[in-house]
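Researcher: We're reviewing a set of sequences before deciding which ones to prioritize for further study. For each one, I'd like a predicted 3D structure that I can look through quickly. This is Peroxide stress protein YaaA. If possible, include the structure in token form so it fits the rest of the review sheet.
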Amino acid sequence: MLFLLPPSETKLDGGSGVSGLSLGDLSFPELTGVRQDVIARLTTLARDPEAARAALKLGPRQLQEIDRDLVVESSPTMPALARYTGVLFDPIDAASLTDSQWEWARRHIVIHSALFGPVRAGDAIPAYRLSHDSRLPGASLKSTWRDDVAAVLQATGEFVVDLRSEGYVALGPLGSRSTYVRVVSGDAGGRRALNHFNKKSKGLFVAALLADRPELSTLDDLLVWARMRGIVLEAGAETLLVSESVLAEPGAQRTGTGPSR
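Model: Here's the predicted structure for Peroxide stress protein YaaA, in token form for your review sheet.
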């Protein structure tokens, strides 16, 4: 089972690797040609700071992001799960993960980058700035990525739990062996989609998975694990994640539970 996350616009600087980005070492090598194309278009854009500011929707205090993009091919790299920061990734706290948690993450967590397409948690990537709605020279990111992303994820044969935002779903919609997760409130007024706690709830959900490291194959397996964890997942046309069940105090969450094989 794969858990497909959106990226974050905020990223850590730094990393290691004197030779910078190695596209050939990234997961899903079928995407190498598309990755090269998008990188070339991004670096071309970055050479025109005013055009880049508009295309990347940068404010006056964010212009250093253009410098990141200029040197994206030679910048230091770090594992993708450690590169991204922000509301979704903070609960995961990649810096504190154990070796066994990193092993599970490398096998089961995929992050959908607008620049690199899907990458696995351990893939080494540089800091960059590009979002799903950025406007690069040439074709749109949607038309660039859509078919290829859908094809490589389908080719894994894995059931995909889609935790992406709708903007990233448009860059690679999934087929029948997947479920889209929507975060809702479980208050007395019924189910209500959330914005503020959406990313945090997804981050806590992934953190719980990393704590337990269950081996899951089907949606039913996931529902059983969640029920044992006290996490409310409701499967239907979409899978609903009830925010209150993951926004509990960390001490209330159990570890080492759930189906394994």
